[in-house]
Amino acid sequence: MLGAVTEVFDRAMDVLVVASGLGCVWLGWRAVFRPRRPPEPIQGPVWVVRAWGLGFVLLGISLVVETVTLMVGGEPGWSANVMRWVAGPLVVGSIVAACAARWRERRRTRAVNERRR
Predict the structure, then answer these.
(1) Measured between alpha carbons, how far is 63 from 101 in angstroms, rounded to an integer?
(2) Of 28, 40, 73, 104, which has the fewest CB atoms closer than 10 Å, so is most exposed?
């Protein structure tokens, strides 16, 4: 009985992960092709938003492929490497670049305002 319940929860979690992966693909796709329109998950220069979107598209596709592969009894392969070595650095690097761009813009605005006084 306990094994059947665990199996149901495992499949429900797999379906949730696949849905999350498809959501990542959708959000990343919108960021790549419509960088200044809502929903705007990340703000910064257009190249940063598009890099973030590309990372999210790759992350979502890899997540879906790996989850479906594990659901049918396969071994994780290239998809885990894509998440680790390509999608992750793209997403994290673009977030760092967006934060740096916002910091630089605030600093520049503050310097301009101090000169006016």
Answers:
(1) 29
(2) 73
Type of residue numbered 56: F
Instruction: Report the alpha-carbon distance of residue 84 to residue 29 in Å, rounded.
Output: 20
pTM assigned to the model: 0.86
Query: Side chain identity at 80, as an amino acid letter?
Result: A
Q: DSSP letters of 66-91?
A: HHHHHHTT----HHHHHIIIIIHHHH
Q: Report d(CA 32, CA 13) in Å as an integer.
A: 28
Residue with tokens 């934060």: 99
| Cβ atoms < 10 Å from Cβ of 59 | 22
What is the enclosing helix (H) or strand (E) of 42? none
Give the DSSP per-residue string, 11-79.
Answer: HHHHHHHHHHHHHHHHHHHHHHH-TTSSS-SS-S-HHHHHHHHHHHHHHHHHHHHHHHHHHTT----HH
Place of tokens 């703000």: 43
* pLDDT tens figures, 27-73: 999 999 998 888 788 888 999 999 999 999 999 999 999 999 999 98
